[in-house]
Amino acid sequence: MFRLTATCLIATCLLLTACGNETETVVQNPKDTSSPTVDTTANSNETEDTDQVNNPDKSKPSEASSSQTAREENSDTMQNADAESTQAEIPKMYHMNENYFIKPNDDSLEKKVVLLTFDDGPKEEDMINQLIDTLDKHDAKAIFFVNGYRVQNNPDLLKLIHERGQIIGNHAWDHEDLKKMSNADAVRQVESVQDIVKETIGITPQFFRPPFGSGNDALKAVVDKNDMLYMTWSNGSLDWDKSVKDRPDKVIQNVLDQLNPGSNILMHELPWTVEALDELLIKLKEKGYSFVDPRSIELKVR
Ligand SMILES: [Zn+2]
C-alpha cells in the first residue's frame, strides 16, 4: 500500500507538472450557503476522520473489488429485485443544482425540504440503530455515505442500514483526498466501493460524495460513468469539528444557522450527532421543513 501510494504520488506530481491546470473544486462554505466559494486547497471543510490512517485492516481497493463473478452471481437475488423495484416506485420529483441544493422539479412541490446525509460509516451498530430509530420516528430517509474499507470491516452494518430502509452512498474506499491521486487510483477508489456494496447488499450506490468535498472534473466524469450523482453539501453541521465535540446543541445550531430551502446537510456517524438528531428534526419540522427522500432526486445536476 505504501509503495503504491508513493508511486501514485510521484505519478500525480508528474501528471500535474505536465498538465499544470488541475481543475478547481467548488466547495460550499458551511458558513455561507448562498454563495459557494472556489476552493483550491482541497481540504477545506471535512477533516474528521483520523482513525482511518492507522487502520491495520485497510486494504487496497483493488484487492476488495476482485470478485466480478461474485457480483454477477448476486445480481439475481431477491434483495436486489426488491431494492430495484422500490427505487422504481419513487417518482423523481426533485433535482440537485450546481451548488448542491435540492430543488423541486415544479412549483407544485414543496420547496422547504432538506436532504439528510451521514458520512464516514459504517462504524457502530448502536449509533446506526439510534440514527435510524430517529429517522423512522420522523418518517425520514437519509443517505449514509460509506467508506469501502469500513464496509469491508463491517459488512453486517452496511446490511443493517440497507435493510432498515435507508440509502447507501459512495464516499470512496479510503478517506483520502482523491484530487491528490492519479486518475487510475481515483477510479479504483470510486469503483471498488460500488463493487463491495453490490457484493454486500445487491445494489450499487447512486450518490457519490468525495472525502473532504475534494474533487475535480476527472473525478466527476468517473462518478458520472458509474451512474451516480456527485455532490458535496450546502449545509455543514460542523459536527466533525473540535468545537462541536460532545456538543449536540452546537450541531443543531450550526444547521439552523445555515438553513435554506433545499439545504444538503452534512452530518457524520458521531455520538453527539446521534444525540442531536431528534431535536434537530423536530426544529426543522417546526420551521416548516420536510425531509426529501433521496430516491426522489434525479441523478443529473440541473
Ligand atoms: Zn467524510
Explain this structure to me?
- By secondary structure, the chain is of the alpha/beta class.
- The protein has a single domain (2-41, 56-301), classed as Glycoside hydrolase/deacetylase (TIM Barrel), CATH 3.20.20.
- Helices cover 41% and strands 16% of the residues.
- The protein is built from 11 helices and 13 strands.
- The chain has helices at 2-19, 61-64, 68-74, 78-89, 125-137, 148-153, 155-163, 183-201, 217-225, 248-257, 271-286, and strands at residues 25-27, 37-39, 94-96, 102-104, 113-121, 142-146, 167-170, 207-208, 229-230, 235-236, 264-268, 290-291, 297-301.
- The strands form 4 sheets. Strands 5, 6, 7, 10, 11 and 12 form a 6-stranded parallel sheet that branches. Strands 4-3-13 form a 3-stranded mixed sheet, with no helix packed on it. Strands 1-2 form a two-stranded antiparallel ribbon.
- Helix 5 runs parallel beside helix 11 (271-286), helix 8 runs parallel beside helix 9 and helix 10 packs across helix 11 (271-286).
- The termini are far apart.
- Mean pLDDT is 81; it is low at 1-45, 48-60 and 62-83.
- The chain binds zinc ion.
Give a brief description.
The protein is α/β, with parallel strands linked by helices and 302 residues long. The chain has eleven helices and 13 strands.
